[in-house]
Amino acid sequence: MKKILVLLVFITSIFAADATIEVVNRGLVLPRILIQDATTNFASSDVKERFSRMIAGDLTVGSAFEVIEGIEKTTYDAPLGAEIAAKNPAFVLRYELAGGSGETMLKVKLIDTKDSSVRFEANYSQSDLKRWPFLSHRAIADIARNLELSPIEWMDKSIVISQYTKPGEARIIIADYTLTYQNVVLSGGLNIFPKWANVEQSAFYYTTHEKGKPTLYKYDLTTRQKSRITSSGGMVVASDVSKDGSKLLLTMAPADQSDIFLYDLNTRSAKRITSYSGIDVNGNFVDNDSRVVFVSDRMGNPNIFATSINGGGVEQLVYHGKNNSSVSTWENYVVYSSRESGAEYSQRTFNLYLISTKSDYIRQLTATGVNTFPRFSSDGGSIVYIKDAGSQSAVGIIRVNENKSFSFPLNLGKLQSIDW
């Protein structure tokens, strides 16, 4: 059915090996930073080697420094040597890993080479070795915050993804933003369209089939318990959560055609926002939760529209592209994927665009390949998406204000959906 095809136009993508970072667009000259490894006793040689690449990658994605290639060996309290001057760094980031069989510890300090002063120092610990990437993510995010750099708190956040395992089955996985860490939290049956329930990322909503009927559940990561929210014939998907976490935007099709509904978790009641004989899907809160941006085929092809949270008149937001079927919002900004190759046998091109609901502002974010499934970071300063360029796919990260993009090549696999 046409409805199902539109609802399930998501992505064929993948799962990570080590994150290899490609800088697509370089900005201004940045202060140079040298990384030093002071680790002397760590149980896992594999994690030790991968950690050095991860911390260099996190610094690069943070976009505040030019990372000097190569990791130097030293001891944690050693003075800065004369040989450092030849590489002319503004800062030295020195770290030491310990443990690695049970609890994993990280010590890190940032040294200003002008006067050898310590600008930042902290200790971190992680009880689960498999979560070692978050030690790096947390440290680099804290350094950025301490130095009052562009915020990258999202780096320490998790991604929730649904992965097809076989026909009719999909599992839900929690991962870091590079997909290096992956933890299967739900398997068995068709578990699709996960959506974080709150900013703390302690729970998520997802859709499954219960006795053949699409049903929305909330899964609590702390208690490992699930609770039923609602069900609907045809389709039920949670596409967005209000700022206070009390309301959901649902795509439901109780009478075969999909529309956008506002679901109040306190009263457990749903209010219809759109009523259209075709397809309305993927509602997102915008403008301080006063309006809804969504995808509709009411102009013939999937496109981006907006309406009041109370329904009523519908405004078309995008006037280009053959297929604008994926969208994400943050405050008054909208990022969407647009198909731009119209010829039947031409190579497909989907580019990402950023617009504002408050002005005529529009900015193209990508230029080549198939770029889909954009999702804003919690601070709105970054966008994660899936990039397919010929035979290789990747997770892409766009630093919006820094005008930089990065990609993390992935191994073959198949994702059903993703949320950041």
Task: Give a quick precis of the structure.
With 420 residues, the chain is mainly β. It contains three helices and 32 strands. The protein has helices at residues 2-7, 45-62, 133-146, and strands at residues 14-16, 22-23, 32-37, 41-42, 66-73, 91-99, 104-112, 117-126, 159-166, 169-175, 182-186, 192-196, 203-210, 213-220, 225-231, 236-241, 247-255, 257-264, 269-272, 280-286, 291-296, 303-308, 314-316, 326-330, 333-339, 350-356, 362-364, 370-376, 382-389, 392-399, 404-412, 415-419.
Sum up the overall morphology in one term: globular
Secondary-structure arrangement, i.e. CATH architecture of the domain at 28-149: 3-Layer(aba) Sandwich
Computed over alpha carbons, the radius of gyration is 23 Å
How many beta-strand runs?
32
CATH superfamily of the domain at 28-149: TolB, N-terminal domain
Derived structural class: mainly beta
Pick out the low-confidence regions.
1-26
Determine the strand fraction and express it as a percent band. Answer: over 45%
Q: Could you describe the largest sheet, including whether it forms a barrel?
A: 6 strands, antiparallel
Tally of alpha and pi helices: 3
Protein name: Tol-Pal system protein TolB
InterPro entries: 6-blade_b-propeller_TolB-like, WD40
Signal peptide: 1-19
Pfam families: PD40
